[in-house]
Amino acid sequence: MTDTNLIEIKNVNKIYDNGVVGLKDINLNVKKGEFIVIVGLSGAGKSTLLRSINRLHDVSSGDILIDGQSIQKATGKKLRRMRRDVAMIFQNFNLVKRASVRRNVLSGRVGYYGSFKSTLGLFKKSDVDLAVKSLQRVNLAEKFYDRADALSGGQQQRVAIARALMQEPKIMLADEPTASLDPATSTLVMDDLKSLNKDLGITVVANLHNEGLALKYGSRIIGLRAGELVFDKAVEQVSETDFDEIYGRTGQIKIKGGNK
Ligand SMILES: Nc1ncnc2c1ncn2[C@@H]1O[C@H](COP(=O)(O)OP(=O)(O)OP(=O)(O)O)[C@@H](O)[C@H]1O
């Protein structure tokens, strides 16, 4: 891990068109190689924050820098180039269910192609090789020609991770990646995220509802409540009180499966 800030979030506010405040004056720096977990109640602003980092939506004020450059101010080619560095996976996997795993994984590479070639599926041999390698990384190489909807939920999420890897990203955003999965499958998906963090040096920012998973996988935990950052701590320093505060609990519910 180096000391370089890969993501800098500066005084960011997000107010939706209907007046709902999504984020309030968020300041946050993420260093290369960190595994950040964001926790908070439903509606706390976790997805809003993640979607601001890759500019799936604009923020209302403030700035977000990726590797020292403002993604908020970037346009055209520069924005597309910056977005390649920031991959994302979602709760519902977002695969094209009727297409093959091969096609889904290769679609992660479209940021490197003009629309003509990618629409026709004219991918280079080196990219097909990269697709095989990405699927091997999530232990699904044998599913290359299967249809996406023939796979289990956990397998679909791991195909989504392989697709994200096709971007050769510096950052992986994961929006509730395990919310649709059972506990055993959730662990497999989190293990894949951990391995690409450790082995490939990809910085991970994941929204998680599950406290046990947050404590097991995160190197740093960020707590959001009603759009505000209420704590930002190395995992070793996070206490049950921090979670109680985030979830508005009175202390009768205990953390299960964590290291506290
Ligand atoms: N497109 C939108 N238009 C208007 N308000 C929105 C929009 N998206 C989110 N919000 C509101 O912004 C606030 C933050 O929502 P967000 O989805 O970021 O929370 P979250 O912490 O990710 O919740 P969850 O865990 O349920 O996904 C909520 O009050 C939500 O209703």
From TrEMBL:
Keywords: ATP-binding, Cell membrane, Membrane, Nucleotide-binding, Phosphonate transport, Translocase, Transport. InterPro entries: AAA+_ATPase, ABC_transporter-like_ATP-bd, ABC_transporter-like_CS, ABC_transpr_PhnC, MetN_ABC_transporter-like, P-loop_NTPase. One of its GO terms (molecular function) is ATP hydrolysis activity. PROSITE patterns: ABC_TRANSPORTER_1, ABC_TRANSPORTER_2. SUPFAM superfamilies: P-loop containing nucleoside triphosphate hydrolases. It comes from the Bacteria. The keyword Iron-sulfur does not apply. GO terms for cellular component: membrane. Residues 7-251 form the ABC transporter domain. This is Phosphonate ABC transporter ATP-binding protein. It comes from Oenococcus sicerae. The lineage of its organism: Bacteria, Bacillati, Bacillota, Bacilli, Lactobacillales.
